[in-house]
């Protein structure tokens, strides 16, 4: 069921009801500033297992634990490096998940069997109110494994139907999942780029980006299990382009690009899906655009953004979406 909530001032009745469901060991989908999450109480192993089951998610792919207060770290992680604490004080709440050493309080199921856990304080009143009422919430993106992440309540409904309560706080602002950074060793390692960039983190320590497709030894376990799975895959072939000249003429295709390109393409051949005026809006709309492209069932050409700021995360996601022309059976 979808329950509408005011994204800025969520109604206590809706939050209380959702908290009750969580505390009973069931799941609730809720908005964050990045994408919608599918939540369970992080310390309830049985509830967390339901997430893996419903998503069809491999058990070794750990979940992010969402908190609403830095003090909650005391019983979730063994130690917080001082430099990481500085980052949290400035960038939380926000689209940044920080990997630290987990305490036993977090079941192995939540952390995919790892010693570490990724923690994030989301910048969304609905998410924060929910966590306040129920305690830390483990939540992956609320999509079936391998599908584009949901940026509206309707996307969650498309993937899960009536199986979970969905709190509808409107479309998410950022539209791409949080940056994932491991701060346990120097230099810090970014496993997933997001709205919090390498440059922003470099104010606090040395930072290296680890690219999923450039792992030094592919037979070794991936440092972040999410890297080895194919994500963000629409069920139409996806091609990438920078210049309009790279897009074929006289064939029926779908084009996903900044609005400024709309006039450039011949309407008789091209189904155009606009991403708005700039890379910020492109990031916010790309998953919705990929889902819409599936409805048209045509080869889909997606515009790359310049490799700066949120453009880096956007390019990484669409590159993964284009990873293979056909959807894998997962
Ligand atoms: O913005 C987000 O992060 C959203 C919202 C709901 O908060 N959540 C999200 O979760 O994107 P998910 O499960 O779809 O992606 C989590 C990623 C996965 O790639 C996972 O492998 C990685 O974070 N991850 C989580 N815990 C980790 C850990 N302890 N070590 C390495 N990677 C970890
Ligand atoms: Mg995900």
What does this entry show, briefly?
This protein has 330 residues and is α/β, with parallel strands linked by helices. The protein is built from 8 helices and 15 strands. It folds into 2 domains: 2-214, DHBP synthase (Alpha-Beta Complex); 238-322, no CATH class.
Structure description:
By secondary structure, this protein is of the alpha/beta class. It has 2 domains: 2-214, Alpha-Beta Complex (DHBP synthase), CATH 3.90.870.10; 238-322, no CATH class. The chain has helices at 12-23, 45-55, 82-91, 125-134, 153-160, 198-201, 279-296, 310-321, and strands at residues 2-4, 28-30, 37-41, 64-66, 96-101, 116-120, 137-138, 165-168, 179-182, 188-192, 207-209, 238-241, 253-257, 270-274, 300-303. Strands 1-8-2-3-7-4-6-5-9-10-11 form an 11-stranded mixed sheet, with helices on both faces. Strands 12-15-13-14 form a 4-stranded parallel sheet. α1 (12-23) packs across α4 (125-134) and α7 packs parallel to α8. The two termini are 25 Å apart. The model is unreliable at 324-330 (pLDDT under 50).
Total beta-strand segments: 15
Terminus-to-terminus distance: 25 Å
Enter the CATH topology name of the largest domain.
DHBP synthase
CATH architecture of the largest domain: Alpha-Beta Complex
Stretches where pLDDT falls below 50 for ≥5 residues? Answer: 324-330
Biggest beta sheet summary:
11 strands, mixed
- Beta-strand percentage? 15-25%
Strand arrangement, largest sheet?
1-8-2-3-7-4-6-5-9-10-11
């Amino acid at each position: 069921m979808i329950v509408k909530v005011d994204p800025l001032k969520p109604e206590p009745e809706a939050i209380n009801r959702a908290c009750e469901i969580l505390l009973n060991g069931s799941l609730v989908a809720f908005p964050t500033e990045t994408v919608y999450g599918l939540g369970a109480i992080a310390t309830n192993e049985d509830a967390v297992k339901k997430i893996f089951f419903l998503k069809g998610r491999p058990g070794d792919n750990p979940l992010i634990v969402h908190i609403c207060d830095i003090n909650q770290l005391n019983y979730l992680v063994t130690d917080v490096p001082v430099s990481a604490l500085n980052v949290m004080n400035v960038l939380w709440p926000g689209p940044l998940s920080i990997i630290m050493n987990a305490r036993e309080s977090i079941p192995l199921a939540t952390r995919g069997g790892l010693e570490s856990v990724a923690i994030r304080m989301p910048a969304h009143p609905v998410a924060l109110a929910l966590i306040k009422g129920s305690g830390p919430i483990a939540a992956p993106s609320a999509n079936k494994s391998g599908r584009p992440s949901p940026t509206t309540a309707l996307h969650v409904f498309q993937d899960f139907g009536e199986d979970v309560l969905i709190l509808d706080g409107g479309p998410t602002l950022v539209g791409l999942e949080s940056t994932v950074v491991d701060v346990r060793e120097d230099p810090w390692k970014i496993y997933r780029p997001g709205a919090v960039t390498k440059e922003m983190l470099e104010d606090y320590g040395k930072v290296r980006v680890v690219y999923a497709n450039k792992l030094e030894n592919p037979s070794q376990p991936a440092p972040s299990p999410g890297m080895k799975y194919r994500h963000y895959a629409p069920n139409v072939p996806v091609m990438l382009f920078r210049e309009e000249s790279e897009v074929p003429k006289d064939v029926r295709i779908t084009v996903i690009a900044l609005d400024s390109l709309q006039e450039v393409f011949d309407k008789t051949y091209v189904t155009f899906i606009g991403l708005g005026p700039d890379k910020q809006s492109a990031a916010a709309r790309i998953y919705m655009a990929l889902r819409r492209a599936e409805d048209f069932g045509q080869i889909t050409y997606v515009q790359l953004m310049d490799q700066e700021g949120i453009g880096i995360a956007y390019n990484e996601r669409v590159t993964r979406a284009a990873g293979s022309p056909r959807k894998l059976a997962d």
